[in-house]
Amino acid sequence: MNKFSPARTTQTRGVDEITASRRLRRMRKADWSRRLVQENRLTVDDLIWPIFLTEGENVREEIAALPGVYRLSVDVAVKEAERAATLGIPAIATFPQIDLALKDETGSQILIADNLINRATRAIKAAVPEIGIITDAALDPFTSHGHDGILRDGIIVNDETVLQVASAAVLQADAGADIIAPSDMMDGRIGAIRDALDAAGHQDVAIMSYATKFASAFYGPYREAIGTQGLLKGDKKTYYLDHANSDEAMREIEQDLAEGADMIMVKPGLPYLDIIRRAKDEFSLPTFAYQVSGEYAMIEAAAANGWINGEAAMMESLLAFKRAGCDGILTYFAPRVAEILKG
């Protein structure tokens, strides 16, 4: 018999001797014991549902790259917000698809008090006051070039963009937004928004900072959803984070907290679990992740082809965020997960 054979090893030294009687499978032997020692749990309270808005009435338009995700007119968005509240989802985040004719170089439509995003906020708050509304003050849905800031001579100008983003944040708060979540990654935007909100009497409106938003390949379906995919000139590497950098991400978080952020977000999600864990360990602040469109689309596509169990992969991916330290997750799966959790 080969000296390395399993039989010889077992005869020479028993498992209890090898493990000092610490058999780690004991608590995995049954469903009840696995549940008893489970370290992390996903609940409906962890879910934030991103929805896409469009003009019109009774519009529910499926997004090709995001099966099961729709652009919604305001009236339909209200109904979906009611459904979310019934399921116990704490908050929704809204993102508009703006008519191409309303887009321009500076994204000026974001400064219209009655624009699509603000009309939706008012309507949802009137119908479902108990649900939280998170809005993004970034310019990319509103610009003709698809960038998150004002483009001048091929450069995204920081300070002028910050002034416009801060003004937009006040209009969104005026409409009833509970949390402003600026995703533009301009320097100084958090402090400028906090000052503008406070000056306008919105001291209770919180800021969720996209503190670590990376220049990622996983945003493609989102850009289709808001109508910027064919518009983007160049890339966003001069303001989004290099996905190779972790220390820089921590500096961004530290700066945003110093400027007044109430909570932070890591975006994308699964490829950046190390950033989530490090952020939670270093700052002990409410920490969120955005399971972005590319992550959702990969799971859906693999499931549609029969390559994975879609529901199991969906739940596993979300629990991974909790294990990494997230207090909540923005995910397009939110209503589906809430229904599963409701049982």
TrEMBL record:
Per the record, the pathway is: Porphyrin-containing compound metabolism; protoporphyrin-IX biosynthesis; coproporphyrinogen-III from 5-aminolevulinate: step 1/4
Name the Gene3D superfamilies for this protein: Aldolase class I
GO terms, biological process: protoporphyrinogen IX biosynthetic process
* Active site as annotated: 213, 267
The EC designation for this entry is 4.2.1.24
Q: Which CDD domains match?
A: ALAD_PBGS_aspartate_rich
Q: Quote the subunit structure annotation.
A: Homooctamer.
UniProt record similarity statement: Belongs to the ALAD family.
Q: What is this protein called?
A: Delta-aminolevulinic acid dehydratase
